Amino acid sequence: MPVDHRRLCGPEESHAPALWAAEEGGDESPRDPWALRPLFARAAVLSQADGSAYVELSGGTKVLCAAWGPREAPEPPTAAAAAAALRMGRLQCDFRRAPFASRGARRRPGSTAERDAERDLAAALRTALEPTLQLERYPRTRLLVSVLLLQDEGSVLAAAISAGALALADSGVQMYDLAVGCALCRGPDPSAAWVLQPGEAEERRAAVRLTVALLPALNQVSAVQGAGSGGTPEDWAEALCFGLDACYRLYPVLRQSLLQATCRRRRAM
Amino acid sequence: MDPSERFCVPGERLCSAEEATAGSGTYTRHGFIFSSLAGCVEKTSEESGLPVVSVVRDSDPQLLPDVGVVVTCKVCSINSRFAKVHILYIGSTPLKSIFRGTIRKEDIRATEKDKVEVYKSFRPGDIVLAKVISLGDSQSNYLLTTAENELGVVAAHSDAGMQMVPISWCEMQCPRTHTKEFRKVARVQPEFLQT
Amino acid sequence: MSERRATLRRLSCSNGASHCSRLLEGTAASRERRKRKGLSAVRREEAGSMAAVVLSEPEKLYIVHGVQEDLRVDGRGCEDYRCAEVETDVVSNTSGSARVKLGNTDILVGVKAEMGTPKIEKPDEGYLEFCVDCSANATPEFEGRGGEELGTEITSTFYTVFSSENSVDLKSLCINPREHCWVLYVDVLLLVCGGNLFDAISIAVKAALFNTRIPKVRVLEDEEGSKEIELSDDPYDCIRLNVENVPLIVTLSKIGYRHVVDATLEEEACSLASLLVSVTSKGALTSIKKVGRGSLDPESIFEMMETGKKVGKALHVALQKILDEEESLGTSRQKVGFLG
Amino acid sequence: MAEAFKTVEPLEYYRRFLKENCRPDGRELGEFRTTTVNIGSITTADGSALVKFGNTTVICGVKAELATPTKDSANKGYIVPNVELPSLCSPRFRSGPPGEEAQAASQFIADVIENSQIIEKEDLCIANGKLVWVLYCDIICMDYDGNLLDASAFALLAALKNVQLPSVTINEETGLSEVNFKQKNPLMIRKHPVATSFAIFDDTLLIVDPNAEEEDLATGTVTVVTDEEDRLCSVHKPGGSPLTGAKLQDCITRAITRQREVKKLIDKVINSIKPK
Description:
The structure holds four protein chains of four kinds.
Chain A: E1 39-43, E2 51-57, E3 62-72, H1 79-87, E4 90-97, H2 112-129, E5 141-151, H3 156-171, E6 180-186, E7 194-196, H4 200-205, E8 208-215, E9 220-231, H5 233-268
Parallel strand pairs in A: 4-5
Antiparallel strand pairs in A: 1-2, 2-3, 3-5, 6-7, 6-8, 8-9
Helix pairs in contact in A: 2-3, 3-5
Chain C: H1 2-20, E1 24-26, H2 27-36, H3 40-49, H4 57-68, E2 84-88, E3 96-102, E4 105-116, E5 127-134, H5 148-161, E6 174-176, E7 180-192, H6 197-211, E8 213-215, E9 217-221, E10 227-231, E11 238-240, E12 248-255, E13 258-261, H7 265-269, E14 274-279, E15 285-291, H8 298-329
Parallel strand pairs in C: 1-2, 5-7
Antiparallel strand pairs in C: 2-3, 3-4, 4-7, 6-7, 8-11, 9-10, 12-13, 12-14, 14-15
Chain D: H1 2-8, H2 10-19, E1 35-39, E2 47-53, E3 56-67, E4 78-84, H3 100-116, E5 125-127, E6 131-143, H4 148-162, E7 164-170, E8 177-186, E9 194-201, E10 205-208, H5 212-217, E11 220-226, E12 232-236, H6 245-273
Parallel strand pairs in D: 4-6
Antiparallel strand pairs in D: 1-2, 2-3, 3-6, 5-6, 7-8, 9-10, 9-11, 11-12
Helix pairs in contact in D: 1-2, 3-4
């Protein structure tokens, strides 16, 4: 493995103590599939960003997000990209997971696995947020959304999508709508029902996982990303409806936090 | 907070497009006006016709240089063909981040374009008023012009490090050493006299 | 210009309409077709010049209106595939390989089986590694680092698609738990990008996995417990993979109010959002994903999933038929390869 | 127009404030920003702390893992600190591997740990030559408004005080280690080093706890680390304008006072979260 000279690395090999611990029987009590974990959201939390938001799901998932309005875009690499840049701005997403964010072993920052995972999350975030933005108003520029995952207790991408939309709205870029994310999953048991906003353990055991993002005012879906043991289109459709309904239920919380931030900013003037 | 103020978030439906005209911070879709910002809803009635609905934020809007606007910029480098500048202000609004622009030799002044020399017009560090003429193409960034009497250098330091005073449309003088330096000087308007 | 191009394409499709009904065809038939298809040269040239598709508004409108009428520029209906050519065993030094041409899109996939150690969390399973090479030959867009973003997107999509537990029987790749297993390196090479990359690659991957032959090995243990791996002497003594559950990807591109399958580059330029679904031969959807910078309304997602299931199932049947045909020809099959 | 003056001539703008012995954010030259600490909020870490100096926000999470020690220090564990400046904390940082400033900060924290003996590395030994603890201390800046070093050192200290390690025993028969999560022990914190940074203006003026703007304009910075026995653990002065011995002595005196305040704050918060 190549040595990372830009970080202090410590010993070559180390293992999480949980590897040697007696297996924990972490069987959770069955939960109401309709229940949503309470969500705490606050916008305008960072000083150095144009816009920012913090989203926490009860149970522990903590996501911090910063957004910057239109900045000068770097030189486009190809002629086609340059032509596209003249028509509309670009959204760039960055996703970082704190090394201590997950249970078990520490995630090694900069390792190939970690970089790949972060890049996939960033790509998924961009797909979910791009439809909310009026990018054609910002030709030749880029907008930046940067996410830091502080603690992973499940439904991370969904929380990041909600936080990202809040941060962008807080930064004052023109948008079509907010985006609300929600995750759901279904256990391996064939009779298992879909549960909303699964925790980390539920996600790990799940046979099927799905994350959806909704633009509530336009009733459009900006992200669907699901995988697992196969299902019929009807199965997936049912899950999608279930997830979108949850997004509608989460929307007022996000909206309220954004209104509060807007009021606070106004008072600070 | 004024209780009569109405706040909204992006995507919120404000009214039907028949009741009002869409102002800044809004967009129209399917016959309705929606907010595109998190901000405060304002309705101004026009004497003739429909009121204008707009959404305003208190912080400065995210402005971008656009064709025709006057910008304040700082010269970073010059060569025989053009001057490279950083755009700092749009009108009197400071930009949150720097955008780069180019003033080509032929856009420095309106007359005798063939006799213009870049180094006799700008020096690195000068503060220049210019107007955006194009967003540029895939190769170049914003193109600017100073070919108007009101455009050109507004603040410059002499070799001795002193702020110079304009003495004609093409010369500035150092108050300490009294040496004269060439510049494309702007006829300064009162609102830009700041320091 | 746009009008002329459009009529040209209409012509070519009246020629090709007959084979549109057939979803896929094997090499034997395709060779013949290539001989009689006079217009193919024109199309190819067009493909070369249009690597970066920039369409004017009227051109886009023309495509969108056509889709609305269920009549696409090349004469297909919304749910019709272009005819695809599939050939397996095209690269001799791989464990399995396949080349797929779908319209202008041209994909080569090689599978190489190498011995490795199982992952800690799955000690009794082998695993698959994907690598996508967006060669600059495929389109000038890929020069420099241009292809990287697309390459990683394709790679991560395939990891997701194959993450489903029973897509490939990974347990059969285990040689002895915790110590040795087969690692299948699936290398995807994009030769020409002519739209609908994901579907074409998934066809090629499935065909290449079908074609894969892994040598049989035996684990010998001596008295002290140290193990030795012995390769079978007979080169024909090998394991085949069961690809029955390997899914195929169907991309449904939203154009206007409708969606199409197997979009061409021009159609992709008219589409803001697509839905990728991976479908098993039994018609189960193992993954779904929205791509593109637009959004979709829930109703159309439901419809797209239905179409995906229907088209995907038919695609599986057609592919399996070709694979079986090629298999039955055995070594007597005349290889077309790259010069065909 | 003040805004415009600030953009065009930021240093001149700042000097005008300094002449009046105050700073644009309303502080006096020797005044610290409001300092808060929140301990143990990240439950996936074995110890964590979030520290705020005004806007500057830094979080430190400690993860403990098991490893074999090196041959030449068979009875010593590892402490591996890393400072990260993600693109989220300020537009001045790009995403990707750590830049120069992050690397310098990591090295500074590593030096503080090494010089001050916060923890004896021998305390991290479980079985001599066989098994030791590795403490990965990841310090991430969430909001970058100056004085990263002080905040990082503070967050590290507070997070280490929060660490609870499960008890590990080595089974004599099998030779395998057994971890018991039910029985947890805190780390032995031997010293409480606290960093105090100063920005130097025009070679003579010292201002304490500089924010990002002040750091950019200053001609130099100096960071002094002291512990509860008033001993000097480290002085970090990365170039910039020179400093007289008397001025440095002044810095040390002020750092000692600051150490007392910070220690008091940590103890108060630790006590408040202790289960009754």
